[in-house]
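Project standup — Tuesday

K.O.: blocked on the structure for the chain from last sprint. Re-posting the sequence here as requested.
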Amino acid sequence: RTAPTRMWLPTLLCLTPRLAELESTVMRADTPREVIERCCAELCASSAGLDAPALSPSIEGEWMLLHTSKSDFDIRAPLGARSDGSAPGLESLFPGAKQAIAASSSPIQRAVIDAFRVTQTIELSVPLPRVTQTVELPGGARLVLGAVASVCDSEPKRVSFRFDEGYVQSGRFRLPYPVPFRLLPEAEASGWLDTLYLSDSLRISIGNKGTTFVLRRSAESQ
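H.V.: unblocked you, prediction finished:
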C-alpha cells in the first residue's frame, strides 16, 4: 500500500513524566545495557506509543540507531548473518569491524555511536516507498543499503521491505554490493520491522530475525 503524499508532523502524543524519563534514560549514551532493556520493556508494555505506528506519518524520516538487543553488532553483516554465521557478501570489505567492536568494553550503543553512525530512513509517502540503511564509517566511507518498502492496513505495526540496492561510497568512488540482490535467498534479501513503541523522538522496533532496534529521530528530521 502506498500512502498519500504527506510530511512528517509532530504527533499529538503527550508523554507523561514517567514516559519522558524512560525515553531520556534510553537516549543517554552512558546508560548501561540492562537499564536500557528494562526501560524499553516498560515503554513497550505501557501501550502509550502511537497506535498503528507503521501507518502513522511519524514513522517517516531519518532515525539514528542507539542500541540493539544483539551483543555483537557486525558491520560486515548488515542484512544479518547466515545460519552458519557467515555474512552475505561483505566479509572481505570490513575484515576488522567485528573485532573493533568486540574489543570495546563500552555498552553496545556507545560502541555504535563512537565507531559508526548507523541511520535508517523510512519514506512511505513517496510514489516508490523505501527504507534506506546507512552506515557511516571512520574516514568518510559509507555503506548504503536500499530496499523497496510496503505497509498494509491489516498489519499496522509492520513495515516490510526487500533490498534492491547496495553500495559502499568512499569519496568519488562507489563500490557495488558484492552479491547481486537477485541472487540472494529471499530470507536474506527480504525482511520486516514491527514497531513496538513510537513517539516523536524514539522508536523501538523488532526485526524478522528477532533483533530489537532502538532508534532516536535524527536532528535532520526534526
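K.O.: great, moving the ticket to review. The beta strands are 61-68, 117-123, 130-136, 142-152, 155-170, 173-176, 190-198, 202-207, 212-217. Helices lie at 17-27, 33-45, 97-102, 108-115, 186-189.
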